[in-house]
Write a structure and sequence with these properties.
The complex is a heterodimer of chains A (185) and B (367). Chain A has helices at 31-36, 51-54, 56-62, 79-85, 93-96, 98-108, 124-145, 149-161, 166-171, 173-180; strands at residues 14-20, 23-29, 40-43, 46-49. By secondary structure, chain A is α+β, with helices and mostly antiparallel strands. Chain A has a two-stranded antiparallel ribbon. A two-stranded antiparallel ribbon of chain A has the order 3-4. In chain A, α7 (124-145) runs antiparallel to α8 (149-161) and α7 (124-145) crosses α10. The longest helix of chain A is centred in the C-terminal third of the chain and has 22 residues, at 124-145. Chain B is of the alpha+beta class and 367 residues long. Chain B folds into two domains: 7-269, 2-Layer Sandwich (Creatine Kinase, Chain A, domain 2), CATH 3.30.590; 277-365, no CATH class. Chain B contains eleven helices and ten strands. In chain B, a hairpin with a 4-residue loop joins β3 and β4. In chain B, α8 packs antiparallel against α9 (328-337). Classes of the chains: A alpha+beta (185), B alpha+beta (367). The interface between A and B is large, with 44 and 40 residues.
């Protein structure tokens, strides 16, 4: 499945994986945002990885590795600053730090992970898509548990077409029923 | 109503007339049925519902620049308000308002303590009956609030949802399909709803059974706070309980449970404690109530804490029928009017140097 840019809805073309102290962080960016973040430079034959990145292994041997802090491209908040202030910086922080904030919210909300209830009219389609993704995820789990692999493959394709992660279908079984039970305004 | 119809007082201090009985704690504020006392007023001083909303495309308040915050105020002021605001929207530019007037708004539960003290561009829209307010640029861009005396959360919720839907026509709220309405504090996401009731629990305190309330609150994932909500102390047996879980349950479920199960449980504890006190030694209870009345009618210096403490005892007397000469509505009005900014406005006394003025004011009111 085509990954989307962490900062916008364009396809991601630059992928950076950082493993530090056993923790893996992945960044996926479109060319425009990769240039903005200094991962690539617009060269004469199109965008190219910056030399510093290509030589990262050698450079790190000569100077202490700097910790790459993931920040929200809109407001500049990091997870550390959000934790310290107890406040996110902007609505897009929730998209950029979805995984980290999701874990924090899950603990604070007694295990709840998915919104149920009112939503603005402009988000109706998003809510419907999310509900459908959860429904497909549940069907996928059922199909796999019954070893109906052909049916599971079809469901997987539909799920991926909707932008859903197959791995999520097995990571958050509680989320599905909850969202389907939601009420609209 | 449209902004052009609103009686905007942008930058102008609050209504200069002295506070009247129309306070969040008084029984004439939001009377859905004026012929009946508010439901469960013997144990519930007031009900409140708050919704947190943020505008898409803007940093949250803690990260936004002053011009961005001013833009948020402008956008909300340009929005259409309805429901409790149909009778008029009173806008107060809190940044340009005198400290004493900000305190007055706080004492009337129309704005929060952080909103009094903040420095950035912010404002509050207040409905003509003071049952509704919208703080702009508190922790979130919008904090919609509805207040009513007694236990009236379901009626408040209906009005709140109507206002929310109306505002949504003019403002685009930040929303995420998984996290719901996005708030500056990650623990408020989802519905963004905070449902609360100000409980009066004097008998439980007298019987030293408040731990029962604390235990139940913990089991039910509730927050227990003081007289003016978050960050304030309990005064005179008044406790604000509110929900903490905002994600994974619909607003309707949260309100229905709070109104129909949670608050009634605390009311039942308190009523049982009152019955136990009366059965154990009615004369001793009467003595505490009438001693409080005696002090309030004769004292010459009265601190706020003392006033709330003794008014709380009078309230217990009025609610149980042991004290008939002072109505509950007067006691609830005094609970508001003995507070510093109100007292200063009414009597002209200096803020913070008001013990004598408070004593005289209460003596006169209880004559």
């Amino acid at each position: 499945m085509q990954r989307l840019c962490d900062c916008c809805s364009n396809p991601a073309t630059v992928h950076e994986t950082l493993v530090e102290n056993g923790v893996k962080t992945e960044v996926h960016l479109c060319a425009e945002h990769a240039v903005e973040r200094g991962l690539i430079v617009p060269g004469p034959h199109g965008p190219a990885l910056v030399v510093a990145k290509l030589l990262q292994g050698q450079l790190s041997a000569q100077q202490p590795a700097r910790r790459a802090v993931k920040t929200c491209p809109t407001c500049g908040s990091s997870m550390q600053s959000i934790r310290e202030a107890g406040l996110a910086g902007c609505p897009l922080c929730y998209r950029h730090f979805e995984e980290e904030l999701g874990a924090l919210i899950n603990r604070a909300q007694g295990g709840a992970t998915v919104h149920v209830g009112r939503h603005p009219a402009h988000a109706a389609e998003l809510v419907d898509r999310a509900a459908l993704r959860n429904k497909l995820a549940r069907e996928l789990r059922e199909a796999v548990s019954r070893e109906e692999y052909e049916r599971a493959a079809k469901i997987r394709d539909r799920l991926q077409a909707l932008g859903g992660q197959v791995s999520d279908a097995f990571a958050e079984p509680d989320a599905c029923g909850a969202e389907e039970g939601g009420t609209s305004p | 109503m449209t902004p052009s119809e609103s009686n905007s007082t942008d930058g102008v201090p609050m209504n200069p007339t002295p506070p009247s009985a129309s306070s969040p704690h008084a029984s004439r504020l939001v009377h859905f049925d004026d012929t009946q006392p508010p439901p469960d007023a013997d144990c519930v001083l007031s009900s409140r519902i708050r919704l947190a909303r943020n505008l898409l495309g803007f940093h949250f308040v803690n990260k936004a620049s002053p011009p961005m915050l001013a833009d948020v105020v402008h956008r909300v002021q340009s929005a259409r308000f309805s429901g409790p605001f149909a009778g008029g929207v009173r806008w107060v530019n809190v940044q340009a308002t005198a400290p004493a007037d900000r305190l007055l708004l706080f004492e009337r539960n129309l704005i929060s303590r952080p909103f009094v003290e903040a420095q950035h561009p912010r404002g509050v829209a207040i409905s003509s009956d003071e049952s509704a307010s919208v703080m702009v640029n508190e922790e979130d861009h919008l904090r919609l609030q509805m207040l009513a005396p007694g236990l009236q959360l379901v009626a408040l919720a209906e009005r709140m949802f109507a206002l929310d839907a109306e505002l949504e026509h003019s403002l685009e709220f930040a929303f995420h399909p998984r996290f719901g309405y996005l708030t500056a504090c990650p623990t408020n996401v989802g519905t963004g709803i905070r449902v609360s009731a100000m409980l009066h629990l004097p008998a439980l305190r007298m019987l030293e059974e408040l731990d029962k309330v604390q235990r139940a609150a913990k089991d039910l994932h509730l927050a227990v706070r003081g007289f003016h909500g978050e960050g304030t102390d309990a005064l005179g047996d008044f406790f604000q309980v509110s929900n903490q879980v905002t994600l994974g349950r619909s607003e309707i479920d949260i309100v229905a449970e709070f109104n129909g199960v949670i608050v009634p449980r605390f009311i039942a504890y308190e009523r049982a404690a009152r019955t136990a006190l009366l059965e154990r030694d009615a004369e001793a209870l009467d003595d505490r109530i009438y001693r409080a009345l005696g002090i309030l009618r004769t004292c010459r210096l009265l601190t706020l804490d003392e006033a709330i403490k003794f008014l709380s005892r009078l309230r217990l007397g009025a609610a149980t029928g042991r004290l008939t000469e002072v109505p509950l509505t007067l006691i609830d009005r005094l609970l508001l009017e003995v507070q510093p900014a109100h007292l200063s406005r009414t009597t002209g006394c200096e803020l913070g140097a008001d013990r004598a003025a408070r004593a005289e004011f209460v003596r006169r009111s209880l004559r």
